[in-house]
What we know:
Radius of gyration: 13 Å
Strand order of the largest sheet: 4-3-2-1-5
Shape: globular
Mean pLDDT: 84
Helix content: 10-25%
Largest sheet: 5 strands, mixed
Oligomer: single chain
Amino acid sequence: MIRVDALWLAVRPLDMRAGTETILAQVVEVFGEARPHHAYLFANRRGTRMKVLVHDGQGVWLACRRLNQGRFRWGQGEGTVVLSRPQFDALVLGLPWERLGDGGVIRMI
């Protein structure tokens, strides 16, 4: 299993044709660096596809997820967001992750 200590969400859309090297360059541009055991999440403009780049300390892994129905609930504008594990789990399922606080407590409706 790949160890992931932190999850980072890039708000700006990504061209899903991009490969590992291009996305790694995007991680360095957006986040400043690619840290070991950190995962970096990107989505396309429509919010139907997501790519996750993970630096495992020795190399990088790239995974893609596509929704056949619905859209990922993604942030708006520019910048980055740090996600907790429960927020990541909700995001991958297409649920309103931004409403989850620490410990899975819903703080906003």
